[in-house]
């Protein structure tokens, strides 16, 4: 099998392909010019192009399904070399900005949500990705290529500011080595130039891996999927809590190196009649005491076969207001692309039932 070229940092590539400056040229063709073949890399010698062609894979992902939501978000399903599939989502946010003469212009802000594994071992009760169990880790290149394919599909210029969130399928910290390498490949200034401080790793709370990630000092942002404020409920929702309880997560967060101007994001998936009460909000405020935190309330996104329910907008608002009144920054995440079965794993599941992927 050919080696996926996106698995290589520029440094690694420069060791494979001599002389070293060729790696920079190849990076530019891949990540700036969005080349689809080695053949078109005109400033490389012909022989080198054919050697690259023989040894490296330039298109490791095949887009097998694409769904556009009314809010402009686009969900992609990619097939990997072995037939398994993963999802990635392009989230569009329009931001009002003004021209110098005072007239309004709209600026498109992109966030790409990427997968780190096929399936997931963590087994959260509310998560569709968990239902199919764990299949395998993605390589760094398979993570990187998701974003690259979306750039190509949407003609996003390589210098456009894009944010990345590792919130698709899988537990990024269970694939820490490949994810950390992907962070570096994304941030290479001769490549996509997506700075680590525009990348957010979301974790279900593997405390020991949070510590390990912290020691790597990559400069990335951290998001914790908390979802419950006492261990008993959290264990029911997220069995991983038996191994790493809430206190251990908080301890790991306190030790995590965070950019001075940034906050740790706490995701709180709100499920009707499970964790949407003000008592939980109160406990949450206590728990976050002394931590530079921001809370993101997420509407539970129901799917066929689940007993959990989407919360009432009114209860979401009350929960948010309570936190804000106590001085805790809190936003509500509208389930982006609800109409395109957005919560992780749903497009894959649907396509599996139609016989696409495995
Ligand atoms: N494994 C990591 C990252 C991927 S999951 C983690 O758990 O943080 C990304 C987010 O999607 C998590 O916060 C998860 O709780 C949330 N999620 C899972 N199932 C969901 C659903 N049905 N509706 C809304 N959000 C969901
Ligand atoms: Fe895995 Fe995250 Fe889903 Fe939990 S919520 S099963 S950690 S992907």
Task: Give the topology, please.
Layout: E1 3-4, H1 10-16, H2 21-32, H3 46-55, E2 56-57, E3 62-68, E4 74-79, E5 85-98, E6 104-113, E7 117-119, H4 128-131, E8 134-137, H5 140-154, E9 162-166, H6 176-187, E10 199-203, H7 207-216, E11 221-225, H8 231-237, H9 246-254, E12 264-270, H10 278-287, E13 293-299, H11 313-325, E14 329-333, H12 346-353
Parallel strand pairs: 1-2, 6-9, 9-10, 10-11, 11-12, 12-13, 13-14
Antiparallel strand pairs: 3-4, 4-5, 5-6, 7-8
Helix pairs in contact: 1-2, 5-6, 7-9, 10-11
Explain the overall architecture.
There is one protein chain. This protein is of the alpha/beta class and 358 residues long. The chain has 2 domains: 3-56, DNA polymerase, domain 1, CATH 1.10.150.530; 60-353, TIM Barrel (Alpha-Beta Barrel). The chain is 33% helix and 23% strand. The chain has 12 helices and 14 strands. It has helices at residues 10-16, 21-32, 46-55, 128-131, 140-154, 176-187, 207-216, 231-237, 246-254, 278-287, 313-325, 346-353; strands at residues 3-4, 56-57, 62-68, 74-79, 85-98, 104-113, 117-119, 134-137, 162-166, 199-203, 221-225, 264-270, 293-299, 329-333. Strands 3-4-5-6-9-10-11-12-13-14 form a 10-stranded mixed beta sheet, sandwiched between helices. Helix 10 (278-287) runs parallel beside helix 11 (313-325). The longest helix is centred in the middle third of the chain and has 15 residues, at 140-154. The protein is globular. The model has no long low-confidence stretch (mean pLDDT 92). The site of iron/sulfur cluster has 12 residues, from helix 4.
